[in-house]
Amino acid sequence: MASDKIAVRKILDKVKAEGRTSLTAPEGKLVCDAYGIAVPKEGVATSAAGASKLAAGMGFPVVLKIVSPTILHKTEAGGVLVGIKTKEDVERGFATIMENAKKYDAKADLLGVQVQQMLSSGQEVIIGAVTDPSFGKLVAFGLGGILVEVLKDITFRLAPATREDALSMLDGIAAAEVLKGVRGAAAVDRSALAALIQNVSQLITDFPEISEMDLNPVFATQSGATAADVRIVVDWNPPEPRYRPKHDDIVRDMNRIMKPDAVAVIGASSEMGKIGNSVMKNLINGGYQGKIYPINPSADEIMGKKAYKSVKDVPGAIDVAVFAIPAKFVAQALVEVGEKKIPGAVLIPSGFAETGNVEGQKEIQDIGRKYGVRLMGPNIYGFYYTWKNLCATFCTAYDVKGHAALSSQSGGIGMAIIGFSRSAKMGVSAIVGLGNKSDIDEDDLLTFFEQDDNTTIIAQHCEDLKDGRAFAEVAKRVSKKKPVVMLKAGRTSMGARAASSHTGALAGNDKIYEDVLKQSGVIRARSLRDLLEFARAIPVLPTPKGENVIIITGAGGSGVLLSDACVDNGLSLMAMPPDLDAAFRKFIPPFGAAGNPVDITGGEPPKTYQNTIRLGLEDPRIHSLVLGYWHTIVTPPMVFAKLVAEVVEEMKAKGISKPIVVSLAGDVEVEEAAEYLFDHGVPAYPYSTEMPVAVLGAKYQWARGAGAMPKASPSEAPSR
Amino acid sequence: MASDKIAVRKILDKVKAEGRTSLTAPEGKLVCDAYGIAVPKEGVATSAAGASKLAAGMGFPVVLKIVSPTILHKTEAGGVLVGIKTKEDVERGFATIMENAKKYDAKADLLGVQVQQMLSSGQEVIIGAVTDPSFGKLVAFGLGGILVEVLKDITFRLAPATREDALSMLDGIAAAEVLKGVRGAAAVDRSALAALIQNVSQLITDFPEISEMDLNPVFATQSGATAADVRIVVDWNPPEPRYRPKHDDIVRDMNRIMKPDAVAVIGASSEMGKIGNSVMKNLINGGYQGKIYPINPSADEIMGKKAYKSVKDVPGAIDVAVFAIPAKFVAQALVEVGEKKIPGAVLIPSGFAETGNVEGQKEIQDIGRKYGVRLMGPNIYGFYYTWKNLCATFCTAYDVKGHAALSSQSGGIGMAIIGFSRSAKMGVSAIVGLGNKSDIDEDDLLTFFEQDDNTTIIAQHCEDLKDGRAFAEVAKRVSKKKPVVMLKAGRTSMGARAASSHTGALAGNDKIYEDVLKQSGVIRARSLRDLLEFARAIPVLPTPKGENVIIITGAGGSGVLLSDACVDNGLSLMAMPPDLDAAFRKFIPPFGAAGNPVDITGGEPPKTYQNTIRLGLEDPRIHSLVLGYWHTIVTPPMVFAKLVAEVVEEMKAKGISKPIVVSLAGDVEVEEAAEYLFDHGVPAYPYSTEMPVAVLGAKYQWARGAGAMPKASPSEAPSR
Which of A51, A273, A605, B207 would disulfide-bridge A94, Cβ 3.0–4.6 Å? Predict the structure, then answer.
């Protein structure tokens, strides 16, 4: 892309010098020219022949306008002609306009006639840009008109956008089909549109002071895309970028904090009911094997451990200090933590920004920055890291080791995570409370979990991202290696925002989250339950090797609901090849239905389930199985669960491993069967046809985004 | 509405006589005229002055067209002029056209010039009609263009549509706002559009042979709505309407079947593992107190009951015969059931239409009709009616009496209903399997449950409705008294349908279900889990008296997610009046947030929950409460559960009863608390912020549709 930064800088300097916050239309056009953004061609002619030549060069139709510093109201002066289609008409038009102008004002200084390309055909679209307080520069795309205004059919990407990002925007709106040509219209030039999006995104990246921008409308045709109108708004005081420690420093400090060899408990107490007592208990009873230093100025020993007046009195190094003292004492203790060179402080106390004490929070942030102490919280329950038997929290202990790392902004949601995990026996590597996020936030955790061998999936609850751009950058990298799931709360509270542009007014906060999370490869959970179930099931499922999903069901009714769920979750029901159809038919009653779902019918013995599931796993054209079990006396729930586990083991021995999920319809015994299956690596759900497919869908979403499986050919691509 | 049926009949007769299946444009216009559907005005003039007079009468602009039986290609002959705006131009145009025509064909027979009103302004919409195999005549409405073609933004109602139905269609599309005027356009004449929809729906109702119809486009303006183009397709062999017994007969027979005093078991057996043995066991062990007659030609006694060779040998009356014999013996036994005048047969056996034995099914249908025996099934698990301790099924017994009546088309889903119900201790009145629905279907059940005092909610799973129209009619009535919830499976398998019209091609099967279920007041469950949870919670919740919902939460994080869920479920978060805000603030810490959600903050004692919940129940401006509990040591889960139950009781004593739902965030003890709360009339869910709000939303949806609560003023109306 040709970009002329010097030209843009010159224009912006002029605008700034004149104290303006927006560019004039001619200035906007010059900026567009400098960044290869096509605008209507134009030129000034001083003769009829010249005008005609100019017009022929830019293509018809054209608009003619008188150029005169003394004529302000061009139309009134008869100085504008639109829709001129031939060279002859341009020549005549030139003469007419000049005559009219002279008639209008005999003394006028007539410099010539402006000839301008007239855009009218093609599909109208909007391309724009906004500055989001969390995500920074974003580029936007939509079809304009009713679609954008009434249906809010618009999509966003972080700027600068790659070519792939830009092309994905053309498919990222509900009415995407329009661009491919409907009702006999030609398809638009996708390449030109993508280039235009990229150029806009580069422009706003290069010039942070450009806060909002509208190209509206852009006319997209078979052979190009031209912005008919340009609006550029500038902000001479853009917000400071948020401070971010360096990647290696984050990794080093977070490793010491999350997997410490020595923990200090500031405010440790022997007194039941005190937070400092609960934390001590959880550390000791949880089985933490590192050093524990109780800090308490008025005790010599707490729970059998020597106590110290200050962290500074502790002889050895300390990796993390857990604070269990009232807010008003935190700052002083934090200075001591800093002087002791402890890399992390877990700030359980509340009483900071969440209660209006913004200054108090600023104070501890400054101390943290000054001494290089990373702060978790304040206003949190603490954190768990199971592989170190570490419960650095005042809540109940949690000890089921596993590979899901969870975090929550809210303490209540943290408690729900603990309760659900315990109830579902979900193995976790860590549970972390982020609270006020004065320092450590979601991307610090991602950075740590990325390189933490005990973690294979990261599931986060958040209400806002303090630095959405930093999160997106880290998530984009991490999600390629490990699935990242997010429950973004506050979806529906799209606060009205002051905006000077059309695009700005359309930038509903949640739509930006939706698009950026997707752009970053993050799986978005729609509910707390989904977040928890995804965290539980995704690490259990092997990565699929392709898009072909087969449903095998004992209950035709479940098959129908499972098919619905597959479509809802963007999964592709494999079109059954005739030979495979015949192979399945060998195992099922003549009135059963092969095809997909494979309906083995209700009264079948274990062997039928066994044979069909084995076939589904063995045939390399099938990539994933969805099983619908129907409780019967012939094949009771636990018999079914065990046979599935057996077939899975048998295939594993042969090197075959595919995702299998199970929906169990039956009496309460199916609950035990579901648990057994989950324990044997097969996510299974009683009384639900949706959840098993939703978790499979989430696994696929990750595998596609991370490039962890071969790309589908266009004919196999899922419908969403 | 003025309708001229004779005129339409005459036209249709002519079309039929000529062996055509569609009407010509002029015929279509005449049909429209007969039903008060506005079409462009037109007339034929034989002089320039006449043309000018006609044009002035209909308003400009107009189109002029030569009228000549010998000129087929009018445009080629120079015989068409469009966009004529003045009387003078009409006169000139008349002359021009006549001259052109003469030049084109000197021998042509020129009858004059047609003057036609030219429509071009206004909002383009589509109004159409289709004939659905299950629902019959439906009227359709959409905005046309991209919205209908690409986004499928179209809505359907059963014909004939009431004025209210028609008006609801204008709000029933995603782009509804367009009709109210956007981008400076005027709002359309809603009354005229509604009348047009009604007239179309009346026309297709009066003439069943009209199978499809398109008015496309219709131009809707500030002062009217005119169909610019009309297309009418006829089907001379419309399908026969499905046989329906009379309402009183259904009620009489269904009462004997569902609440029998005497049951025969055809194929009763003493042999373990046989279906006829399971049915006998379930009847006896379930505690059924009526007479049980085992029918078995080769036994004298089965399980202590005297056995008979045939139902005809039983001395007394029998209300229902449960079939537990192979398919091939069913027909003969059914004849005997008919001869014995038993009103109902429960056909457990499979081996009929579902295995391709369509003839066998037709045979038993014919026998049933001949003898007046209502058939349940075949291919079912049977049914339960708990208040009679009746388990007429081969599945496990179920005995938790309650007020939810459930049914399923599929056996597998039936088993999931039983398992879930048992696990959740859901009280049910009945669980019914409908299987192949050879006779008894969803609307028979609705008709029975409507008058069954033990039932307060009806929840049904179905894959198709054999007679959607009958269902809709019954559901519309029943849903006014008792909530009707439906899980329609096969949502996403919108089979392509052959269609001769544009509207027909757009009639995706699921969109019709969606709209008709809504029109009938049915709550649509989006998942099996929702169906089950709605059935469990809706009867527990009192009917709200208004739209104002308040969230009271101990966890701010839950409050945010609960707010999201309220918006998702169409609930209105009450704008907190200042005095009420002040009243809440009295009970909560100074840094807690009043407003809505009321955030009482995390560390509060039971009293704070108690005081705020009591206030929420006492203040008459608040109509429903959503509670977010956060597990702490200060207020443990069971303490919270008991205090909520106490406050509810206390208020009940004062005559105050409002819906309350609870989301519980905490460790596993919250599961016990949730159960306790549910038992005390408060639907409560652990680890979920969505489900409690979803069930409240479903209750509201019912209350609004059934007119069970005062209508909201426009400012209070929910966003969806």
Answer: A51
CA distance A222 to A160: 25
Please state, in angstroms and rounded to a whole number, the distance separating the CA atoms of residues A277 and A297: 15
**8 Å CB contact between A413 and B629:** no
Identify which of B410, B491, B557 has the shortest CB distance to residue A556: B410
- Listed in sequence order, the residues at least 6 apart from B637 whose beta carbon sits closer than 8 Å to its beta carbon are B629, B631, B664, B666, B667, B669, B670, B672, B673
Nearest-by-CA chain A residue for B530 = A688
Q: What CA–CA distance (Å, rounded) separates B205 from B160? A: 6
C-alpha to C-alpha distances, A1 to A196, B133, B310, B675, nearest whole angstrom: 10, 58, 90, 64
What spatial distance separates the first Cα and last Cα of chain B, rounded to whole Å?
32
Residue B246 pLDDT greater than 70, yes or no: yes
- A interface test, pick of B361, B410, B486, B551 with most A CB neighbours within 10 Å: B410
Decide: residue A426, CB within 10 A, 0-12 exposed, 13-18 middle, 19+ buried. buried
User: Alpha-carbon distance A242 to A235, whole Å?
Assistant: 18
Sorted by sequence, the CB contacts under 8 Å of residue B73 that are 6+ apart come out as none
How large is the angle between the packed helices A442-450 and A247-258, nearest 10 degrees? 80
Q: Closest CB to A412: pick one of B183, B420, B555.
A: B555
Residue A691 contacts B, CB cutoff 8 Å = yes
Which residue does chain A place closest to B380, by CA atoms? A602
- CA B160, chain centre distance (Å): 16
* Most B CBs within 10 Å, among A420, A571, A600, to test the B interface: A420
CB proximity under 8 Å: B 271-300 to A: 273
Asked if residues A159 and A171 have their Cβ atoms less than 8 Å apart, the reply is: no
Pick left, alpha or beta for residue B431 (phi over 0 → left; psi -120 to 50 → alpha; otherwise beta).
beta
pLDDT tens, residue by residue, A230-286: 999 999 998 887 889 999 999 999 999 999 999 999 999 999 889 999 999 999 999
Residue B628's beta-bridge partner residues? B553, B663
Residue of chain B whose Cα is closest to the Cα of A275: B633
User: Angle CA(A236)–CA(A28)–CA(A145) in degrees, nearest 5?
Assistant: 105
Model confidence pLDDT, tens digit, residues B323-353: 999 999 999 999 999 999 999 999 999 999 9
A640 lies within 8 A of chain B by CB: no
Across A371-468, the runs of DSSP E, i.e. the strands, are 374-376, 382-385, 390-393, 401-408, 428-433, 457-462
β-strand partners of B506 = none
* pLDDT score for A161: 96
The model's pLDDT over A293-314, given as tens digits with 9 standing for 90+, comes to: 999 999 999 999 999 999 999 9
Residue pairs between chains A and B whose CB atoms are closer than 8 Å: 230
| Structural domains of chain B, with CATH | 1-39+120-240 (3.30.470.20), 41-118 (3.30.1490.20), 258-379 (3.40.50.720), 400-539 (3.40.50.261), 548-716 (3.40.50.261)
Give B420 to chain A, closest Cα distance, Å.
6
The answer to whether residue B690 neighbours chain A at the CB level (below 8 Å) is yes
Number of Cβ atoms within 10 Å of the Cβ of B15: 18
Contact A490/B564, CB-based, under 8 Å? Answer: yes
Is A464 or B534 the better-scoring residue by pLDDT?
A: B534
DSSP secondary structure letter of residue A243? P
The answer to whether residues B378 and B352 touch, using CB atoms and an 8 Å cutoff, is yes
As a 3-state breakdown, chain B gives helix, strand, coil percent values, each rounded to 5, of 40, 20, 40
Question: Hey, which residues 469-528 in chain A have their CB within 8 Å of chain B?
Answer: 487, 489-493, 527-528
User: Is the Cβ pair A556, B175 closer than 8 Å?
Assistant: no
